[in-house]
Amino acid sequence: MSITVSLIVNGKAVTQTCLENTTLVELIREKLQLTGTHVGCDTSQCGACTVHMNGRAVKACTVLAVQAEGAEVVTIEGIGVADNLHPMQSAFKECHGLQCGFCTPGMIMAAIDLVNQKAELDDQSIRKGLEGNICRCTGYHNIVEAVGRAAARMRE
Amino acid sequence: MYEFTYHKPQTIKDAISLFAKADDGIYLAGGHTLIPAMKVRLRAPTDVIDLSALDGLSGIHEESGALVIGALTTHDAVATSEVVARAIPALNKLAAGIGDAQVRNRGTIGGSVANNDPAADYPAGLMALDATIRTDRREISVDDFFTAMFETALEEDELIRSVSFPIVESATYIKFPSPASRYATVGVFISRQGGQVRVAITGAAACVFRCTEMETALSNNFAEDALDSIQLNADDMNGDMHASAEYRAHLCVVMAKRAVASLL
C-alpha cells in the first residue's frame, strides 16, 4: 500500500507517495533524483548512503522513508556547489581524499557530523569516527588528513 | 523487503492494541537490527508499529541510587551523556563501542535489550549491573530476563519503557570486537559493589551469562591472578568463522583479567 511522506530535503519541503517498504535512500535517489547519495552494500556496513537526518549522520539504507516524516534531511547536494564547495569537500579535493569517488559523498556527510559533534579531533579519533564508512581505494590516509584540515577550517 | 502496513501510534495503549490486531506485528525502535533483517527477508512482519512518537520513552536521569535510561534513548545519547558519566561511566564506554557513529545515532537501548543478540553489548551491562527492566506492565529482574538466544522474558506485545541500573562503586566493560561489525567476539562486564562482584559475558555463548566461577574468585580476591585457574568449557561456547569455541573460552578469561586490571 502507498503512503504519503512529507519532509524537508536540502531546505525544500517535499511530499512524495511511496510504498511503506521504501527506504530513505530509495526515496532520495529514485523519487527525488538526488543521485549523489550512493548505495554500496545496502546492509548498513559501508556508509556510502550516509545523509544527515535532523542534523545527525544516518545510513539512509537503514531508515524507512516513512520514518523521515517531518524530518530535515541534508544530502551531499545540499552542502555545497561546484563553485562554492563546503570546506570538507575542498579539503577532500586538496588532500586527494578520494580516488574512484564512490564512498566520498557518505564520507563527507559522516565527517561533517563528526566535526560538528567532537570539539577535538586527532588522527585516531577521526579514524574511529569514520568506522562506519568504508573506502576501498585510498587506504584512508588522505581522508584522515582531509577531515583534519576541514575541521580546522570549519572551526575558524 | 516484503510489503507491510506501517503504524505510528501516539500512546503505548494504542501501540499494544495495534499489535493485538496485527496478524504478525512487530515494534520498530531505531530499526538497526529489524530493517536489515526485513531487507534480507529474515523477518516479514505484516505490520510495523513505529514507537518513535511515544512520549516519555527516551532520556536519562538519576532516581534514588539508580541510573534510569529510557528505552528509545540512542546509543550516541548514552555514550555522550554527562549523567551517565557521573553515575556509571562504564556505560558511556559500552555505548560508544556499539557499531559505528551512524548506527549509534539511530540504535536504541530498548531495541538492543529486547532483541538479545548473543553478541550485543548491552545485555552484558544489564547483567553485571543487576539492572531492572521496566515494561508497560511490570518490572523484570535482569537475572530472569535474557532467557536464550534472541529470546527474553518479554511477552509478545510487551514494551520496554526503561532500564534501571543500580549505581555501583565501580564497573568496566572490555570487549574484543569483531573488526568488521564491532559486535563482541567476547565482551566482559564487571561490576563491584560492597565486596560483591558480578561478571557478565556476551558474545561467547548462545546467550549472555554470568560467570559465577569468576564472581566467587573475584569476590574473595579482586586481582588478575585470582582468575589464573579458571577455564571455561569450550563446549558451551560459540564457534564460527570469526573465532573457534576454544579461542572464545580462552578470550573470556583474558578479557576478564584486562577488566580487573583496569579497575585496580
Molecular structure report:
The complex is a heterodimer of chains A (156) and B (264). Chain A has two domains: 76 residues, Ubiquitin-like (UB roll), CATH 3.10.20.30; 68 residues, [2Fe-2S]-binding domain (DNA polymerase, domain 1, Orthogonal Bundle). Chain A has five helices and five strands, in the order E-E-H-E-E-E-H-H-H-H. Chain A has a five-stranded mixed beta sheet, sandwiched between helices. Chain A is of the alpha+beta class. Chain B has 264 residues and is an alpha+beta fold. In chain B, 31% of the residues lie in helices and 25% in strands. Chain B has ten helices and 14 strands. In chain B, the strands form four sheets. Chain B has a five-stranded antiparallel beta sheet with strand order 4-5-10-6-7. Chains A and B meet through strand 4 and helix 3 of A and helix 2 and helix 6 of B.
Question: Which features would summarize this protein structure in a list?
Answer:
heterodimer, A: 156 residues, alpha+beta, Ubiquitin-like (UB roll), DNA polymerase, domain 1, 2 domains, five-stranded mixed beta sheet, 5 helices, 5 strands, B: 264 residues, Uridine Diphospho-n-acetylenolpyruvylglucosamine Reductase, domain 2, Uridine Diphospho-n-acetylenolpyruvylglucosamine Reductase, domain 3, Enolase-like, domain 1, five-stranded antiparallel beta sheet, four-stranded antiparallel beta sheet, 10 helices, 14 strands, 31% helix, globular
